[in-house]
Amino acid sequence: MSVIDLRSDTVTKPTEAMLERMRSAALGDDSRDGDPTVRALEALAAERTGKADGLFVVSGTMGNLVALLAHGQPGGAVLLEANAHILRSELGGIGGIAGLFHRAIPGQGGAMALDRLEEAISPGLAPHRLGTSLICLETTHNDAGGVVLPLDHMAAVHALAQRHRVPVHVDGARLFNAAVKLGVPVARLAAHADSVTFCVSKGLSAPIGSVLVGSHGFIERARAFRRMIGGNLRQAGGIAAAGIVALETMVDRLADDHAAARRLADGLQRVDPRLVDADRVETNIVQVDTSFSGRSAAEWIAALAPEGVRAGAWSPSLLRLVTHRHIDDQAVERSIAAFATVAARFADTRPRQVAE
Fold first, then answer.
1. Residues 6+ apart with CB under 8 A from 240
2. Helix residue ranges per DSSP H, 229-351
3. Disulfide engineering: 177 pairs with which of 11, 283, 319, 344, CB 3.0-4.6 Å?
4. What is the average pLDDT score of the chain?
5. In 3-state terms, what secondary structure has residue 125?
6. Is residue 240 classed exposed, middle or buried when 0-12, 13-18 and 19+ CB atoms within 10 A define those classes?
């Protein structure tokens, strides 16, 4: 029985077209004369997002860190939504490496409260406040379950930032998922930011890599910081070639992953309505609440494994399931059946209260 891996869309394998392009890619030293295939990917990424230039990096976390370094002044403050990936999952690089402080702004569905954001902005160093160096947005928002920031919210944040002369960076690891969900070109989202990072891996299925895009001057500065943190690339055209194929061929099919996630959520809701709120599923992430069962997320993961389903824990009582191009209709149905089996098993073994 094949294993259904729902832990993340990072488990996707490159397509045959990617492998063929990787084998035939033109190569060069990216940190010296330049790798022609890397340059082609950077140019394509910039064109698709409506930006002037791009920089290939090995991961979204590296792209975000380089953006923080290139935008920020050491000792400045970065304003982010309280559960942003940069704060939750990037191991403190914002302070430990970039030398920046942060202020977590409360929000709903990954969208910062605009009034609280405006209150937090300080255009310069003041007697009791740090100057604001950068505002960061995230779409799709990982912790919020893959929800998409509305375009009007992104526009409002950008306008607010421009009034205070503060740059905006978008952590767009799944930016193309957001664009597909909204039914707009990805450049419409990127227009509301000074810089954007997006992954060509994850749902786009390239084996590795992200691209940071922005103005020529910003990318020139970012390229120097990439070197500082050990991210310089040599003959990287082999992996960049897969990213080109990803942007050329894999964007439109992200809608299939969104549909699979919705079918999965609907099926889990039929197993038990307490497992998932299907109406909150917007893209390719499904959050499953195990608290009602009296069993932890780790216990559910262990119980699902013999059924051929791999899931990931997002919190002690929350699972995160991510659909991708390897999750077809049959995999969705098998996953629902596996959850039904585990739910029934846990219900049968739940301790019963003894009547007094």
1. 25, 35, 37, 38, 40, 41, 56, 209
2. 237-249, 254-271, 297-304, 329-349
3. 283
4. 95
5. coil
6. buried
For residue 172, count CB atoms less than 10 angstroms from its CB and return exposed for 0-12, middle for 13-18, buried for 19 or more: buried
Percentage of the chain lying above the pLDDT 70 cut: 97
What is the arithmetic mean of pLDDT over 21-43?
95
The pLDDT value recorded for residue 353 is: 46
Backbone phi and psi for residue 149, each to the nearest 5 degrees, phi listed first: -65, 130
Residue count (the chain): 356
CA distance 324 to 5: 9
Q: How far is CA 216 from CA 51, 206, 222, 262, 286, in A?
A: 9, 25, 10, 40, 38
Taken in order of first residue, the domains within the chain and their CATH numbers are: 13-249 (3.40.640.10), 253-348 (3.90.1150.10)
Q: Which two tokens stand for residue 259?
A: 């549909």
3-class secondary structure, 218: helix
Nearest by Cα to 31 from 214, 221, 235:
235
Beta-carbon contacts of residue 302 (< 8 Å; ≥ 6 apart):
none
Nearest CA among 272, 284, 269, 270 for reference residue 326: 284
